[in-house]
Amino acid sequence: MSAKNKLTLSVQYADPRLQESITRPMIRKWIQAALFAPAELTIRFVDAAEGQALNREYRGKDYATNVLTFAYNEGEEELPDDAPTQADIILCTDVLEQEAAEQKKTVEEHTAHLIVHGVLHAQGYDHMDDEEATEMEGIETDILATLGYADPYAD
């Protein structure tokens, strides 16, 4: 592992349903593929109730969403160049499983995509306008292809 991709990782299964099928080594591999700098990340799997509570409290949206990224040094101007990206990435198992079924993807494929998406958010990528969305989707598609997964945005 290169110094640029140094990763300190915590994985929490508050909702244990995916603990056997989505393993820490898989998660680490997906994150490493999406890292452009050192990072200290927590990946937390939650149920719909916790997902909804977090989304309501921090985004003002009263529903569970698939992934929430809390980037702790986002926008900091005084950070040293080698400061790690610090973030919590929350995945809601209920929404993740429902979306995978609706999109005719495996839970593994969809989880890989959402983790890559969250890691990019943690590093400052966003999709607030069409240009940003196109850039972020292209990076996600390229990363997932290197991991052996299909384009998540293909019909």
From TrEMBL:
GO terms for molecular function: metalloendopeptidase activity; RNA endonuclease activity; zinc ion binding. Its EC number is 3.1.-.-. It is found in: Cytoplasm. Keywords: Cytoplasm, Endonuclease, Hydrolase, Metal-binding, Nuclease, Ribosome biogenesis, rRNA processing, Zinc. It comes from the Bacteria. Transmembrane segments: none annotated. It is an enzyme of class 3 (hydrolase). Binds 1 zinc ion. Zn(2+) binds at residues 117, 121, 127. GO terms for biological process: rRNA processing. Its main location: cytoplasm. Its cofactor is Zn(2+). InterPro entries: MetalPrtase_cat_dom_sf_prd, YbeY, YbeY_CS. Single strand-specific metallo-endoribonuclease involved in late-stage 70S ribosome quality control and in maturation of the 3' terminus of the 16S rRNA. NCBIfam families: rRNA maturation RNase YbeY. Belongs to the endoribonuclease YbeY family. This is Endoribonuclease YbeY. It comes from Duganella aquatilis.
